[in-house]
Amino acid sequence: MHSVFRPCGKIGPPEIPPVRKNRPIAPRRCAHPCVVDSLRTIRRQKGAAVRAVHTAIAATALASLLASCASDPVPGGSEAVVVLGAASTRVLNDEMRTLIDAPLTFNNAGSSTLVQQLREGAPGDVLITADQKNMDDAVRAGVARAPEIVATNSMVLVVPKGNPAGVRSADDLERDDVNFVMCDAQVPCGAVSQQLLRANSLDVHPVSLEHNVADTLGKVVSREADAAFVYRTDAAAADGDVDTVDIPHAAEFPNSLVAGVVTSSEHPGEAGELVHRLHSPQAREMWEQSGFTPAA
């Protein structure tokens, strides 16, 4: 004996009965397989549509976020002037912003790192290195032009505030119980440190070689190291955290800060103006207040 199927309406979304107080809403139940398949298809299509909307909203939000993370815009829609400055110049970033009308953004790192970044196509407008050698490398590589010496700097020995290891002179760096750190020789602060070690006939074994002077100073500030060679300007900026000891012959090995226009600059006019202003009376005061010696 065959069962008789009684259809429950045309195939499509199930009808929803009126809402009744304190009773759950339930769809009409239909047992026919084609109705079940239809309901499943509708649910899948609805879920896919919701996911597509959520994806579109997320993509829009991400695009807005990425746009907000771009370089600071200047009036007219162009990007800010990008200054690639040696780590030792980071103490001047705020003062440098007052030298020209265009807004500036900064990328502070070791000089050799900045030159390598430019070789690899990194954006920039002004390059400031902490020595002549790295600027010469940049000019030879075709990534910088028209360099000018804008200031000089010199090295001092720094120890944590209170001098817990009792480092009284550079000669104490040869003691086995003194953890000494310095910059790697490939960056300007390391090259000068090597010259000072030779000039003072010191045989030392640094516990670490850092890629820039900021990291070298940080080892002493955090008391991970007992002593380090850093620029006089960095020691002055960390005055509350370190004590300083003069290094014999330091005045004989000054570092020249050299500024030039990045060859691929999108703002060559503003870049050239900033390099020129680094020689101005206003800049001279800026250099001196931070411990640099302005170029003549």
| Beta-strand segment tally | 11
The whole-angstrom Rg is 33 Å
State the shape: elongated
By helix and strand content, what is the structural category?
A: alpha/beta
Number of domains: 2
Q: Helical proportion?
A: 25-40%
Number of helices: 9
Query: First CA to last CA: what distance?
Result: 113 Å
Looking at the structure, the CATH topology of the largest domain is D-Maltodextrin-Binding Protein, domain 2
- Please report the first level of CATH classification, the CATH class of the largest domain: Alpha Beta
**Level-2 CATH architecture of the largest domain:** 3-Layer(aba) Sandwich
What is the N-to-C order of secondary-structure elements (H for helix, E for strand)? HEHEHEHEEEHEHEHEEHHE
Percentage beta strand: 15-25%
What topology, given as strand order, has the largest sheet? Answer: 2-1-3-10-4-11
Report the average pLDDT across residues.
81
Low-pLDDT stretches: 1-42, 52-77
CATH homologous superfamily caption of the largest domain:
Periplasmic binding protein-like II
* Major beta-sheet overview: 6 strands, mixed
Pfam family, one: SBP_bac_11
GO molecular function, one term: molybdate ion binding
Protein name: Molybdate ABC transporter substrate-binding protein
Family: Belongs to the bacterial solute-binding protein ModA family.
Topology summary:
Elements: H1 33-68, E1 81-86, H2 93-96, E2 104-109, H3 111-119, E3 126-129, H4 132-140, E4 144-153, E5 155-160, E6 180-183, H5 188-199, E7 208-210, H6 213-221, E8 227-231, H7 232-237, E9 242-245, E10 255-262, H8 268-277, H9 281-289, E11 293-294
Parallel strand pairs: 1-2, 1-3, 6-7, 6-8
Antiparallel strand pairs: 3-10, 4-10, 4-11, 5-8, 5-9
Helix pairs in contact: 3-4
GO molecular function, one term: metal ion binding
Keywords: Metal-binding, Signal
Protein name: Molybdate ABC transporter substrate-binding protein
